[in-house]
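WARN no homologs supplied; continuing
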Amino acid sequence: MSSRIEQIIQEIEEYVDSCKFQPLSTTKIVVNKEEIEEYLRELRLKTPDEIKRYQKIISNKDAILEDAQAKADSLIADAQAKAQELVTQHEIMQKAYAQANETINAANKQAQEILDSATQDANSIRLSAITYTDDMMANIGSVLNQTLEDAGGKYKAFIDALQSCLEVVNHNRQELAPQTAQAAAISNTFQDDDSSSVTKEDEDLLDDIGEN
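OK structure emitted
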């Protein structure tokens, strides 16, 4: 049974696949900010619980080892009890020692096998939990990187548009600068001279500059 985090990641992947590409682009897509934030919000809420669940699985390693140790100790205790019973039988003393040693050795071997198997199982569980958590974080990082790239492209396009408008304005001002200077010079001349000395030609020239 898949976890809720796996389901959310799958939903994010399906949502990203369903998004439309930006105009003139085959790599960048247009995403709905509210929808992607809702997915990420739920992902942040579920991640701590999911990590705690796998931490609990990892912590079971100690319980597995303790149970294996208890079984091993029980086997050794039984072997020692049987060996003691054999030793007390004086008529078969030598055979009792031999059987006791064999029993203890077999018990020690079986106990070591149980410990080795338990350790291997615990390490396997821990490795699986760590691998899954890393994969989950990698998927989250991929979605976040894609979102940041899309947002960066959007703001860059906006800044480029503003820069283009500024260049047009500056260019138009440069074209008007000579005419503005000429109009200011004529205006200063008129202010210095008597108003009655303004000729019809000067008035027409001012009108032409104003129209341009």
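The radius of gyration is 43 Å.
OK
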